[in-house]
Amino acid sequence: MDPAPTLDPDVMGILEAYAWPGNIRELRNVLERAVAVADSPRITMDDLPERLRALHVRARADSDVLAPAAAIDLAAVPSDYRGAMEAIEAEYSVWHCSTMPWNQTHTARRLGMPLRTLVHRMKVLAVRRPDPAP
User: Fold this and answer.
1) Where does 67-128 have alpha helices with state H?
2) Average per-residue pLDDT in the chain?
3) Cα separation of 132 and 129, whole Å?
4) pLDDT at res. 66
5) E strands within 3-134?
6) Which residue has the higher pLDDT, 66 or 2?
7) Distance (Å, whole) CA 93 – CA 108
8) Is 48 or 101 the better-scoring residue by pLDDT?
9) How many CA atoms, within 13 angstroms, populate the side-chain half-sphere of residue 38?
10) How far is 17 from 26, CA to CA, in rounded Å?
11) Is the pTM of this model over 0.85?
């Protein structure tokens, strides 16, 4: 009797994160296919359908981009709570916009907010694209 298949941690993470619009039938089909194409009793990312592998690549890329590279200088942040949150939000918005070449549509999508909300918040916080260096 063949050993029961096991799942790589990355595979388990993708299976848990996927929305499964086809419900349990879709999950069953994906797992049956993975077991059929696997070269070993361990299911890896290579055994999953392309749409799930693409999700894994996107999730990894997003995790690399979501955390700002530079820490916010807390000494420069206003001491009142509202002012501090607005300063941090402004810095966070600038950082995200700069990683998406100031494309507000892509930035809003990455942040999971409506474009109108991002545009409004940037206006309220006076966040503007920096002028290019001469």
Assistant:
1) 81-99, 104-111, 115-124
2) 79
3) 9
4) 47
5) 6-7, 42-43
6) 2
7) 10
8) 48
9) 21
10) 14
11) no
